[in-house]
Backbone:
């Protein structure tokens, strides 16, 4: 048996099977029922949300032996050949590779002849925005005087690049990104039919990584099945996609929120050893802190694409922490990202942000935090930027500190978990003198940071 990728195997074959685009399929069904068909349709929307799939279903609906019908039979010669892509009168053209005037002129010549099999002649032009201006002009001439029983279906991810003269002659349908919840339900169901089990963590990671594109989600599923067989778990998805595990992000966040900057730095080191880049780590951390903020603020409705266990992890991490505290940590970490974009050293930027963030609770008390402006985040990073003449010295110093951090973690096992229980006194006792000295040296480098804060109150 030949292997068929999920995107082809699970491709919807009827209007009712197309998910999350009811506003399109319902209108098309009505048009077919009432025999009010246009000559040209424009399907817009992100990639992988069902544009060409819907175009093929429309072609079947029109050319089915029972057609035009909103419910093509799927059995007749026409239905089967359209599904297989071998129907003589249903032509799919890739606009990206047939973008010139010659191709469109050729199309114009052929469109004049009646359909070979007596039904509609249907041209599906994918990525139509890629056509040249001359090709669009040639296309416009056909649309101005469309031959009888010829229908054009244009698909594009970039409708703004389609000339207004073409747009005005098309019925336009905007396809939407597929919401995570609907996508997850669909994948779970289809996977179930293949005896593939996928846990809810894995499912939410796949849906999130797809960005609302079903094609992308199914291509990840293909890789997962060849990677881990028919039992798909969250860790496998993280490894395959190079995602930073939620547990690690929770540990870093928890360490920072409970004033244990050195633990956070050790975890950063651990993440680097595991192969993540600083940029990946910051992006993941910002995403995690954003969800943490929503959880702390009691606005979990805004967290739409996490599994139940991930939401539980957020709640556990944020127990006893105020939303303002999380917000300020988020600002500092996001500030590090901005610094890196403008050329600062990634690792130093992140480390400085985490240490500064871990001082917020100690300096002001967790409940009464002043707002931290972007200006502060900038100073936090700039304050320890290596000078051009002393950069090697700074680099060496950082390395030593990281090595110290690992020792400190070994000497005081379990300290990382202590603050999660909210027992701050125990956590403070567990700070070794070395750790304190190391953190203080960072604070000294971030000169003027805390002096600035009162004026922002
Ligand atoms: Zn049929």
Residues:
């Amino acid at each position: 048996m030949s292997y068929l990728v999920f995107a082809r195997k699970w491709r919807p074959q009827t209007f009712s099977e197309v998910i999350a685009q009811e506003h399109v399929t319902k209108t098309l069904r009505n048009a077919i029922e009432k025999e009010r068909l246009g000559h040209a349709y424009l399907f817009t929307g992100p990639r992988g949300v069902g544009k060409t799939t819907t175009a093929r279903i429309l072609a079947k609906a029109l050319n089915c032996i029972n057609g035009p019908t909103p419910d093509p039979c799927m059995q007749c010669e026409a239905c089967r050949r359209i599904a297989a892509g071998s129907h003589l009168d249903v032509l799919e053209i890739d606009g990206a590779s047939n973008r010139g005037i010659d191709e469109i002129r050729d199309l114009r010549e052929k469109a004049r002849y009646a359909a070979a099999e007596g039904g509609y002649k249907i041209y599906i032009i994918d990525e139509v925005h890629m056509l040249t201006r001359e090709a669009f002009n040639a296309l416009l001439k056909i649309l101005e005087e469309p031959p009888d029983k010829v229908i054009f279906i244009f698909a594009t991810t970039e409708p703004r690049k389609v000339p207004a003269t073409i747009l005005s002659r098309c019925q336009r349908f905007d396809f939407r990104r597929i919401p995570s919840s609907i996508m997850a339900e669909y994948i779970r169901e289809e996977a179930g039919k293949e005896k593939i089990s996928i846990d809810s963590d894995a499912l939410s990671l796949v849906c999130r990584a797809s960005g609302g594109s079903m094609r992308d989600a199914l291509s990840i599923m293909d890789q997962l099945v060849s990677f881990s067989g028919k039992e798909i778990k969250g860790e496998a998805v993280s490894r395959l996609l190079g995602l930073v595990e939620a547990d690690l992000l929770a540990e870093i966040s928890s360490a920072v929120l409970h004033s244990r900057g050195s633990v956070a730095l050790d975890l950063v080191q651990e993440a680097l050893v595991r192969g993540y880049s600083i940029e990946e780590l910051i992006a993941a951390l910002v995403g995690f802190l954003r969800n943490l903020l929503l959880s702390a603020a009691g606005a979990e409705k805004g967290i739409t694409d996490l599994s139940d266990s991930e939401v539980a992890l957020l709640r556990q991490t944020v127990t006893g922490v105020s939303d303002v505290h999380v917000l300020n940590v988020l600002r500092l970490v996001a500030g590090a990202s901005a610094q890196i974009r403008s050329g600062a050293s990634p690792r130093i930027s992140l480390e400085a942000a985490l240490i500064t963030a871990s001082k917020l609770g100690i300096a002001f008390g967790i409940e009464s935090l002043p707002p931290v402006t972007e200006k502060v985040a900038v100073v936090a990073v700039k304050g320890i930027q290596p000078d051009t003449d002393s950069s090697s010295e700074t680099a060496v110093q950082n390395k030593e500190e990281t090595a110290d951090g690992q020792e400190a973690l070994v000497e005081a096992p379990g300290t990382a978990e202590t603050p999660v229980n909210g027992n701050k006194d125990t956590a403070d006792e567990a700070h070794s003198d070395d750790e304190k000295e190391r953190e203080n040296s960072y604070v000294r480098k971030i000169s003027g940071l805390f002096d600035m804060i009162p004026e922002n109150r």
